[in-house]
Amino acid sequence: MRYFFHIAYQGQHFSGWQRQPNVKSVQEVIEQTLSKILKTPITIFGCGRTDARVHASQFFFHADIHTEIDFDLLYILNKALPPTIAVFDIIKMEGLPHARFDAVQRKYDYFVHTYKDPFLNSQSSYYHEQNLDVHKMKEVVNLLPRYKDYKAFCTHPDKYEHTICNVMEADLLVDKNGDRIRFYIASNRFLGKMIRILMGKILLVGKGELSKDEFESYLINLETPKLLLPAHPTGLYLSKVTYPYLDLKPRTEFLTAKQGADWFSV
Q1: How does it assemble (predicted)?
Q2: Tell me: the pLDDT tens digits for 141-157?
Q3: pLDDT at 257 over 60
């Protein structure tokens, strides 16, 4: 029987989602924990990949479990996993749906704070920039849904069959004090480090070091910038994954609910 697992994790202590040799990944920790509980080797397949130290406030993976589950797996799994990983739902699926290939939309949030705060440092990226022009930043963010090819905002475009991304939404928000910024983007797919590279360029626009025309030229000409300079990983969250047959509200909303009362569109 195939099951979908609805989870969230803090990524600061992991080398990303995907299992890799000699490093700690979210996938490896979950596979080892599930295999121990079920007393049989379990392989899981995630809805995507996140970089080292990147978070997910909503994430799905699927697993095929051939043993009968006659106990509260959700409770036992959450007790066995570290505090940085939470499982919200375990859903028995019909047929063989795929957590990665069946997703039709993924949403990401990127958070920036412009003052030093020890309680935000593991949840948001600190950029000591007191005079960011958020209105210019918003102008370039508004360009993103108008373009489809994001070859210029990818570390290794040649590894993909194509670099087309159907960006459906993009927005820039600030908090009531104007010293925290939130970049929001939704697409059917994303390229390697695409959001962090975009955020790096958006911050340059805010600092006056990159013009709107220069930013748009990357989208038009598809030329990779000489310096990609991805933004820090800590502020990035995979925050929503949608399937044709499954659309669950994220359970973790302390930072990433788009309709949050403390965030305002620029």
Answers
A1: Homodimer.
A2: 999 999 999 999 998 88
A3: no
Residue 170: how many CB atoms within 10 A of its CB? 20
Torsion of CA 52, 58, 61, 65, to 10 degrees: 130
Per the annotation, does 150 bind a ligand? no
| Residues of the chain above pLDDT 90, percent | 80
How many CB atoms are located within 10 Å of the residue 159 CB? 9
Catalytic residues: 51
Read off the pLDDT of each residue in 96-116 and give the average, rounded to a whole number.
96
SS3 annotation, the chain: CEEEEEEEECCCCCCCCCCCCCCCCHHHHHHHHHHHHHCCCCCEEECCCCCCCCEEEEEEEEEECCCCCCCCHHHHHHHHCCCCEEEEEEEECCCCCCCCCCCCEEEEEEEEECCCCCCCCCCCEECCCCCCCHHHHHHHHCCHHHCCECHHHCCCHHHCCCCECCEEEEEEEEECCCCEEEEEEEECCCCCCHHHHHHHHHHHHHCCCCCHHHHHHHHHHCCCCCCCCCCCCCCEEEEEEEECCECCCCCCCCCCCCCCCCEEEC
Can you tell me the distance from the alpha carbon of 86 to that of 76, in angstroms, rounded to the nearest whole number? 11
- Return the pLDDT at 227: 83
The pLDDT of residue 73 is above 70: yes
